[in-house]
User: Which sequence fits this backbone?
């Protein structure tokens, strides 16, 4: 299958190793991966700030870059959710509609489309998984704890295939880290307090690493860990699934 690799702008600029790990992981799983080199931001920052009309050129460029692929996969739940719900173009709406149905977050693509069962990866560490809000409540990557329903987690299903990895329990399994994109700028104090609470949950349960499917959330928590002098590290789930 022909997969278009979509890399969010902040991953490209600050965490290129996540992009490389995503590419390598998809290729290991048998995908033919293409990377349009002129791709840009998906437009989520503008839309979330109330200026969705400013993201129209981003939409048009995204359609131009990715319409030809069987699937489009990215290592970011928040950006993928934005594309699934907001990718429109009056001049190419048929293509936009089709493309919205082909866009997948990495973990859901591995579990739902490829149905990966035997990842060849090893990571002998105690790991805490942070479930980002967009991935959980928007994409349905895991069950919401407030619902009286059978629990599930697509990222945890994948991490369970990694040899030596111990996925630690958390007291509040799906609590927001407080990043929220522009929320962390507009409400800095609240964002930091929420982030400290989220990090503390992982530390109290002995995490050596914190992982997740959104680098933005991990970046927020990484800053808190560094400022406190903690030795706990953060890694995107792609980096662990790719071999650690």
Assistant:
């Amino acid at each position: 299958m022909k997969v278009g690799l979509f890399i969010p702008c902040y991953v490209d600029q600050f965490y290129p190793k996540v992009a490389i790990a995503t590419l390598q992981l998809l290729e290991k799983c048998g995908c033919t991966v293409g990377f349009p080199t002129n791709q840009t931001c998906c437009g989520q920052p503008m839309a979330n700030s109330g200026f969705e009309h400013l993201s129209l050129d981003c939409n048009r460029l995204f359609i131009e870059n990715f319409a030809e692929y069987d699937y489009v996969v990215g290592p970011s739940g928040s950006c993928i959710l934005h594309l699934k719900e907001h990718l429109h173009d009056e001049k190419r709406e048929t293509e936009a509609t089709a493309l919205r149905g082909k866009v997948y977050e990495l973990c859901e693509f591995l579990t739902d489309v490829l149905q990966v069962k035997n990842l060849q990866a090893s990571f002998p560490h105690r790991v805490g998984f942070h479930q980002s809000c967009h991935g959980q409540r928007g994409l349905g990557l895991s069950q919401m704890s407030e619902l009286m329903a059978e629990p599930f987690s697509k990222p945890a299903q994948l991490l369970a295939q990694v040899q030596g990895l111990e996925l630690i329990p958390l007291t509040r399994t799906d609590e927001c880290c407080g990043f929220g994109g522009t929320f962390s700028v507009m409400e800095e104090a609240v964002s930091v307090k929420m982030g400290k609470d989220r990090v503390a949950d992982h530390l109290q349960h002995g995490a050596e690493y914190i992982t997740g499917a959104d680098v933005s959330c991990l970046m927020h928590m990484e800053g808190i860990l560094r400022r406190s002098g903690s030795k706990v590290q953060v890694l995107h789930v792609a980096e662990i699934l790719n071999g650690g």
